[in-house]
Amino acid sequence: MKTCGIVGGMGPEASALFYMKIVKQFIHTKGYPPILMYSVPEPFQIADCFLQHNEEGDLLEQLVIEGIKKVHDHVDFCVIPCNTAHIYINTIRQASKVPVFSIVEETCRFLKMHKIKKVGILATTASVDNQLYTKPLYENNIVPILPARHHQKIVSEIIYRLVKGEILASDKAALLMIIGSLKKMGAECVILACTDLPILLSQDDINFPLFDTLDILAEVAKNAIIGEYTVGNSLSTA
User: Fold this and answer.
1) Given the residues 4, 82, 108, 189, the one annotated as active site
2) Which of 4, 77, 193, 210 would bridge with 123, disulfide CB 3.0–4.6 Å?
3) Are residues 112 and 50 part of one domain?
């Protein structure tokens, strides 16, 4: 099996959830997979500034690259269970000695495979402002549908509370309301484009297609571990 490197910690609970999503796929095999994880020491004030206000991103980029350098000599590939960090995927890949899978590319590939034409996006304000999903989705003939600005502010506030370990029933109700508005705007499904959101919300909570980007990346990591995924496949824009 190939060794998977995980650079996480943004936030830690999402990284732990992602680790378990990979491991559980090996329960009925001969053994658990080789995984090396590094947790990025992200200060809370940086998380607040970046996730909600799209500020202090340079430090996050630096922390992730440092994490990649901690593990890349000991693994065959890396994954980063944080959508927002993928704003810097190009420089992260340049710094890595091994392939780094993109959660954005893999999610777009997944949506295209399932013939989705319009998708609602729940993500951090930094991801939205940097068009993390908007551009690649359009390139693949998929229309991204974003929350209204006041709803986006609520989403980012919820994400920040999740990063700090606060799980509130009122926040789940707010997300369900926002998903309802995205559905009315024409979304065929919604992607949880922040890896902290699955801590609070899952498909069991709603009768509407909900895709978890952590699940998508975990499936890719599993296939790469067992050698059934070709590293470096480019995302078709045809």
Assistant:
1) 82
2) 193
3) no
